[in-house]
Amino acid sequence: MITDKVLMKGNEAFAEAAIRGGARLYFGYPITPQSEVPEYMSRELPKVGGHFVQAESELGAINMAYGAGAAGGSVFISSSSPGIALMQEGMSFLCSAEVPLLAMNVSRGGPGIGGIQPGQADYYQVTRGGGNGDYRIPVFAPASIQEAVDLLYEGTEMAQKWRNPIMVFTDGMIGQMMEPVRLPDYKPVLTPSEIAGKRNWACTGYADRGGDQERRVVKSLRMQPEKLEEHVEKLFEKYARAEKELARYETENLKGADVVFVAFGTTARICREAIEILAEKGVKAGLIRPISLWPFPNKAFDEIDFGTTKAVISAELSMGQMITDVQLALNGRLPVFLAHRTGGMVPTSPEVAARAQAVLEGLK
Amino acid sequence: MRRIIVISGHYGSGKTELAVSLAMDLAKRQDRPFPRLSLVDLDVANPYFRSRERMDLLQAHGVRVYGDSFDSTGATAELPALTAALRAPLEDPGCQTIVDLGGNDAGARVLRQFGKYFEGDDHELWAVVNFRRYETRDIETAREHVESIENELRLRVTGLVNNTHLLRESTPDILKEGYEKAVALADIMGLPLLFTCYPAGLVSPEDLKGIAPLYPLGLYIRPAYLDK
Q1: Which domain CATH number covers B197?
Q2: pTM, entire model
């Protein structure tokens, strides 16, 4: 049943949305600021016939996800920055073996064990990947709990469609804050024979396959270079399609803007307030909010009003990582600057507005 | 009001906002029954949005704030370690003490070590309820939550506080709907409904006729950009 608007903590809403979207298997290890996700799953998954396993580590969790996904299960995992780092090897294996997975990173300040306050310095980690080899993972960065709920609800089916991990990347602020959300209705859950039929590549065993005796193999090892090259080329045909179909973004106030912010997640919300502050001072500022980080929404940058806009500012909770993608998307059309805090610090909107004013002053 | 007020409630019930609002209001009153005023933050389960984050504001108004044992990094320390100093306001008969408890049964458990201060009758234990929280969305789930806190604390809740809200999307209708459920819950549990909170500046008390008593809640904890 679709709910009325209810107040939920981000992490609880993420877990509930994954369940409602069809996830029935969760493997994980607690880490702040996302520990409410495994806590919620341990309590709620068994009530809907699902299974929760607390792994011995994130390494264990990602490899349990690999196995369960290969067997046709609908798997959801979550962690925070250092935990996601531990999962990178597994992510590469899942991509290689084309095993679906819905994954969530509620990120915090780094590097290393870092701190527990919000961060976005995992941008490279999630968009470039830390695992070996040629692979890609679609990454979505919600700016509200409702948007995260909608993405996670869609995520299980999306992962199955693309036979690849799908990552929802948010920061600790959105995981820990409360917001009114409307929860979507429960999606029907497939029976074992429906899984064997629909996921006709998965190692479901013969019992649920109605007499079909064909051997199914899910693997990452390809010893012959010709075969491996052919496989990777095939993966990249899939990624090329994903680049066309999965790029998502929103733009605000681009027409006539003096300066344009590019920001995702919590930072996009701060930029919205900075835009209001700048308007009071007679500066027109706009916003490009990438929702997909890979594929990066390059098309959004064609909507900039190049007649009026003098600079683009990448606003990030890092030392500047997305800025590389912003520069690539602009391809030299406008100068690009950074507004940032890092290490778990969150800039205030007056700070971001002041940075925009200083950038415009400097260009005069 | 008794000397020690323990405020319990689910995350998102608004107990921290209530604790801070109450402390700020008491700090401004001239006719306080107790000369000293303290806020004890026992929310070790929640790493963000704790009342300690408003420590400077509270201390500027004469409220002493007690939290974990790491003064410089207290607001971000992940260790659920409490300072022994917070026994001082609990023991001081001249100190009005507001205790902000963690948001669920596990979070409430930390109060047990201070059990001896709750053997007498100079404390109240409030349960703040928000019927727009998914986890306390109806009378049954709210009752389960209040009882789980009582069981964990081995203390009886002495009164309910209705703080049904949907943050900035709160409306008089949402508050009224919560009030009706709170009256029913209080009746079932045999507890007084102490008051109903409303977000000052967002909902006018004139639109809440029939609800009494009312208490205006300041919004101290939530950063403004979260509502952009």
Answers
A1: 3.40.50.300
A2: 0.90
